[in-house]
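Reading is simple: each integer encodes one residue's backbone shape. An example follows:

___
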Amino acid sequence: MKTFIKNKNTISEKDNLIILVENSNNLSNLDLEKKEINYINDRLKKNDEIITINQYNREIIILRPKKNDDTNLYLEETRCLGFKVHEQIKKNSSVVVQNLSEGVINTFAFLEGLALSNYNFEEYKTKKDESKLHTVFVNDSLKEDKLNEIEKIVEAVKITRDLVNTPFSHLKAIDLANKAKKAGDESGFKTTIFTKKKIESLKMGGLLAVNQGSIDEPTFSILEWKPANATNKKPIILVGKGVVYDTGGLSLKPTANSMDIMKVDMAGAGTVIGAMHAIANNNIQKYVIGLIPATDNRPSGNAYAPGDVVTMYDGTTVEVLNTDAEGRMILADALSYAHKYDPELVIDLATLTGSAANTIGHFGIVSMQENARKEHDLLEKSGHNTHERLAEMPFWKDYDELIKSDIADIKNLGGPFGGAITAGKFLAHFIKYPWIHLDIAGPAWVSSKYQYRSKGATGMGVRLLYNFIKNR
């Protein structure tokens, strides 16, 4: 990985500068002309957040985030300030970030926003964009290990964004598995890949049923990070939905343009890979396992059909009422498989329902939990800290009635309302451990630029999981 963020002890008169200040007193150390100081003071009095000084051979940007008594919102506004600055600085250049606020302004948050804004996906462009920042130097008390941590978190988010942005033509189930292995080779986690023969021997009926209509074989990947000094004996398990492309199967998606971005349906898997990369690369002393069932969902003469009954990995029989409710089918097998590890906690992530996206949009993640109240509260705290917030849905037993089947144990469709909740209830049938379900259908992909989260794949969920697992 090319180092993007570096320490720098001295500043030259040719360095482009980004200076974080709390008040005008912080300006006394700057080598500026009197008229420049006066201009800055005038803008500070008018509560400008961004003040730009254009000198002959460099640009100086003075930043003062607006005050906010909510610490988490203040951190987010500082990240967003990184995005705003990135939009206006000279590209194809380097900058030096200097914090003169005596620890009041969070350099970590600013650098996170600035670095995450420096992303674009151009894997398949013949002419590359040369306008990105190429180096951010930091003249600050932030220690080297913190700079490295930011770099590795941003790199992990980039891995997830790249995976989700990659089209189906270049990312079949086996490609996703190999990308997970590559990430593990780079950061230190172990990857085991089950191919179709092994999946058949395990009788993972949900994954095999969804795969029936495809000409490409499924995979089931196990990502394991088990440091010698891990503080948890039982693993935390992350399960990611890996539908690399979703047509809806024989229940072909009816809405116009609804298949245009269905490469995004493996965002849960991409998020797990990114989170595992961040955790291992930063040597977090927690035992963590990732499980990724992967396939595409396509119609063919052999595709599973509405009305079919499928026997799942744990023996449960499922009446399939809609083949477009496929994510829960493959996740159910993975959630059942997770029992073999006697996990401390399982968190699944999936672009599971349009219901979740319609409920809260791209502003957060729909969540549900069983037997994990304390863990969910801690995850919610991490959500506020990273601004990857959770919106917890009710999970009343009344909803259990909606997935009962007349001819099988359960059915894969709940009814006309509460779609995100009944999808969660379907998954809950397969768990007997503390469990949190995260439906990331809303925030995984945005059609226009969403501040430092970019356009297209956002990578939302990686920073959330990293923060939660690191701080448990």
Notes: The two ends are 28 Å apart (CA to CA). The CA atoms of residues 2 and 86 lie 19 Å apart. The mean pLDDT is 94. The chain has 13 helices and 20 strands.
